[in-house]
Amino acid sequence: MNSIKSRDVFYVAGYDPRGYRYYYSLFKKNSLLQNKINNLNLKVSKIDSNEKKFPFFNIDSNKSITTKYTFLNWNDIVKDNWPENIFYILSDFFYFLKIYIFSGLCIKFAKESSTQLIAGLYPLFYMIISYLLTFYIIYEAYNFTKNFSNIVLAILISFLLLFLATKFIKFLGKKLGVFWLSRIYAFCARWSNDEIKDIENRIDEFSEIIVKTLKENHKKEDYELILSSHSVGTILAVSIAARVIKKCEEENIDSSCFKLLTLGQCIPLVSFQKNSTKFKKDLETLANKKDLIWFDFTSKIDGACFPMVDYLKTCGINSQKNQGPKFLSTRFFKLYEKEEYKKIRKDWYKAHFLYLMATQIKGQYDYFNFVAGADKLENKINQENQ
After folding, report:
1. Rounded to an integer, what distance in angstroms lies between the CA atom of residue 48 and that of residue 45?
2. Contact call for residues 253 and 285 (beta carbons, < 8 A)
3. Strand pairing of 66-71 and 56-60?
4. Cα(265)–Cα(74) distance, integer angstroms
5. How far apart are CA 31 and CA 59, in angstroms?
6. What is the value of pTM for the model shown?
7. Which tens digit of pLDDT belongs to each residue from 124-157?
8. Going by C-beta distance under 8 Å and a sequence separation of 6 or more, which residues neighbour residue 260?
9. Do 42 and 368 touch, CB atoms closer than 8 A?
């Protein structure tokens, strides 16, 4: 059967300290807007947060399909690795220099994705230019004060200027999203070195709830389960999916209805790392899973992803013909009016979240149809790509 009567969607957000309520709000607001485009008339229920570990809401459409949308929360781990203190921010910056610049890893980024290289160098240039300008102003102020007053006052003013400049650099950096990028890069490098507390246990918990759900619905023919993920969440999704597949094979559970949707992926931030052996094995598990339905959407205007990069190939992982992820472009330029698209291109932060937002024109990419429409995921996407 092509139509779906019931569906489970498990969603993994990116590297974001904001919790599930933010993403629920984002979905509800944009699904209403998208209803005007796709005519699905999706109705989003209130969120059920009684299940604290796995809060969810239900989606009903005009095609008599019910979708349960469950959040796989890990924002508490993000918060634990989200420095606000300027000294920790600088620590992340120097860690970034060590892992990506001094190691020569940036050369590999340049070969695979110039967009990602530019995004990666953005924090570097911001910090260098900011502090060069700061020290130049301090130098001039020091000389001026020393000549017209005394050296003690000159030193005190120099330290005051350094303090104020650091405050301003932090404030402006937050506004420009500079530290968001440097945090992501540092986090992914630390993850590959097994330095992130509780992340492995959380991935196990996520895979277990998915396996449990597959067991509960294994007799349904008109059912699918989609693991949807965005940004850094796609990295978690790879490991979650690999464990789901292994557990299903061990317990002889039918996983043919299990599907993977990765949006705005930045998987090479981990797979390129020297110590990412465990993660590469997870990729290999997925690459060799026969008939796994896996769609990977990226966009060139998204500076925080690796657009159309075959991360299996870059890792030296061979997949069988017609297996592994199907790499697709969102073609956002076809989904928005020209003037709106021009604005979006200048707003790189919004461009990175566009995967989860309503469009202005009906077209190939429609997240809300993917996760709540009547047809099977593969039919919706394959029809648009024929």
Report:
1. 9
2. no
3. antiparallel
4. 17
5. 10
6. 0.88
7. 778 888 889 999 999 889 888 888 878 888 889 9
8. 226, 227, 237, 241, 286, 292, 293, 294, 295, 325
9. yes
